[in-house]
Amino acid sequence: MVDLPLDRAATFGLHARIPDPDAARTLVQLAETTGMTTLAVGDHLAFALPIDDSLLGLAMAATLSKTLTIATSVYLLALRHPGLVAKQTITLARMAPGRFIFGVGVGGEFPGEFAFAGVPHGERGARLNEGIQVLRKLWTGAPVAHTGKFYPFPETQLRPTPEPLGGPPIWVGGRSAAAFRRAGHLADGWISYVVTPEQYRDGLEAIAREYAASGRDLKTYGASHLLFVRLGDSYEAAFDRANALLSERYAMDFSRATKRYAALGRPEDVAATLAAFHKAGVRHFEFDFLGSAEERIEQTRRFAAEVRPLLDFEWTQP
Q1: CA 157 to chain centroid
Q2: Residue 197 CB neighbours (<10 A)
Q3: Bridge partner list, 284
Q4: Which of 11, 126, 150, 163 is a plausible cystine mate for 97, CB 3.0–4.6 Å?
Q5: Is 55 helix (H, G, I), strand (E, B) or coil?
Q6: DSSP state of 49
Q7: What pTM was estimated for this model as a whole?
Q8: What are phi and psi of 55, to 5 degrees?
Q9: What CA–CA distances, in Å, run from 241 to 236, 247, 259?
Q10: Spatial distance between the Cα atoms of 167 and 100, rounded to a whole number of angstroms
């Protein structure tokens, strides 16, 4: 067992787009009525498909619920100056006090958006590390200065302060050795993506070693996985629909990855996949139910009704 302070019970959340207030209302109601604890969004400046601003989308959702946690999964911090992001996230944290998780990552699969932002592609990891340090400083509400390589600034104080003071927990994505060091030394949690249960356990063990070396003592560590899900009457039917959607999303043939990384098929098939991930250490499942907006609603409700009763591990009802 990995040596990290993991929660015992699992939680479930939705990963979705929030393009407008109507969608925000629909998603918040859907999440609250199907036992989800979190509503998360992805982030890009330019993408193969239309994508909305992540922080503005979460702001719409934050005004509609007093219980849901909102999250970025993951925000490409290196594309922006962390001072501006600190101000935005302070505001968002005050809109959902204690119910905001700031998930960040390096991205990089679309180099053009880094060129668009004027950020060298090869600097994204170093910029993310320093950006996290800048956020932590500015979230204290105290007058602070920074002398780093990328974002030096003189003594500055951002007010009002976030709620809670110190800012939201930071969870990081990534599968590289550098990502595991970042997760163990700088972050409060890890968000994995396109990994198998075996890869998840290996990643969590690598993070645990880095966490032990950091000397930190967190009360709990977030162990999250963003999982593609498509329920169907057969594995084949679920795979065909999921693969078509993912291949379009990533502008490439995604068939090998769809087979390897998605939870597909009948309710019992999806439940078995979740059980394997939970055994590997996942404590928060972030579901990307694949389909049109209408299909996503149907898939979410079907998960709640048909998959969750089959789960043999402890999970938290909000």
Answers
A1: 28
A2: 18
A3: 11, 224
A4: 163
A5: helix
A6: S
A7: 0.96
A8: -70, -35
A9: 9, 10, 12
A10: 9
Residue count of the chain = 318
Supply 171's token pair: 């969870």
Residues 6+ apart with CB under 8 A from 33: none
Q: Which two tokens stand for residue 176?
A: 């590289």
Q: Is 291 helix (H, G, I), strand (E, B) or coil?
A: coil
Buried b (16+ CB within 10 A) or exposed e, 250-262: eeeebeebbeebb
Per-10-residue mean pLDDT of the chain, 318 residues long, equals: 86 97 98 97 91 96 97 98 98 98 94 95 97 98 97 98 96 97 98 97 97 96 98 97 95 95 98 98 98 97 98 91
Write down the residue that tokens 């929030």 correspond to. 18
Dihedral of the CA atoms 208, 209, 212, 213 (nearest 10)? Answer: -140
As a three-state string, the secondary structure of 143-201 is CEEECCCCCCEEEECCCCCCCCCCCCCEEEECCCHHHHHHHHHCCCEEEEECCCHHHHH
Contact partners, residue 170, CB within 8 Å, separation at least 6: 102, 103, 104, 132, 135, 136, 186, 187, 188, 189
